[in-house]
């Protein structure tokens, strides 16, 4: 594996399905929450929600399924997981989930996603 490059695609494992289902938050949502000041000038805490409802809200869709089928990884200052998820019938999405290094905050973060994908669409860096 080349540092910074994507691995070859592999079938999703139970661990990858768990990452897809994990309680993560969108970077965009986190930034909005951090800018919002709560009572007495304290910062609001980012809202952590499961990824599926976040994607449904952002994409204005309701997904019948949410099954990770394939993934690639990218080693950066942590690991980016690029996951192909079947969301019903012949519909797929690609999502990018970042996991920090063990000595850092290792919260999983959904950093990007792509909709309108098919089974044959290759997972690429985005």
UniProtKB/TrEMBL annotation:
<dbReference type="InterPro" id="IPR046350">
    <property type="entry name" value="Cystatin_sf"/>
</dbReference>
<comment type="similarity">
    <text>Belongs to the cystatin family.</text>
</comment>
<dbReference type="InterPro" id="IPR000010">
    <property type="entry name" value="Cystatin_dom"/>
</dbReference>
<keyword id="KW-0963">Cytoplasm</keyword>
<keyword id="KW-0789">Thiol protease inhibitor</keyword>
<protein>
    <submittedName>
        <fullName>Cystatin-A isoform X1</fullName>
    </submittedName>
</protein>
<dbReference type="InterPro" id="IPR018073">
    <property type="entry name" value="Prot_inh_cystat_CS"/>
</dbReference>
<keyword id="KW-0646">Protease inhibitor</keyword>
<dbReference type="Pfam" id="PF00031">
    <property type="entry name" value="Cystatin"/>
</dbReference>
<dbReference type="GO" id="GO:0005829">
    <property type="term" value="C:cytosol"/>
</dbReference>
<dbReference type="InterPro" id="IPR001713">
    <property type="entry name" value="Prot_inh_stefin"/>
</dbReference>
<dbReference type="GO" id="GO:0004869">
    <property type="term" value="F:cysteine-type endopeptidase inhibitor activity"/>
</dbReference>
<feature type="domain" description="Cystatin">
    <location>
        <begin position="1"/>
        <end position="126"/>
    </location>
</feature>
């Amino acid at each position: 594996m080349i540092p910074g490059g994507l691995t070859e695609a592999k079938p999703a494992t139970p661990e990858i399905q768990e990452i897809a289902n994990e309680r993560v938050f969108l970077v965009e949502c986190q930034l909005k929450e951090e800018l919002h000041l709560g009572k007495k000038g304290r910062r609001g805490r980012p809202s952590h929600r499961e990824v599926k409802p976040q994607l449904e809200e952002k994409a204005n869709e309701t997904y019948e399924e949410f099954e990770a089928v394939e993934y690639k990884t990218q080693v950066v200052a942590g690991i980016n997981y690029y996951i192909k998820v079947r969301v019903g019938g012949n519909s797929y999405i690609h999502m990018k989930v970042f996991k920090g290094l063990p000595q850092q905050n290792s919260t999983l973060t959904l950093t990007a996603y792509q909709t309108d994908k098919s089974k044959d669409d290759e997972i690429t860096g985005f």
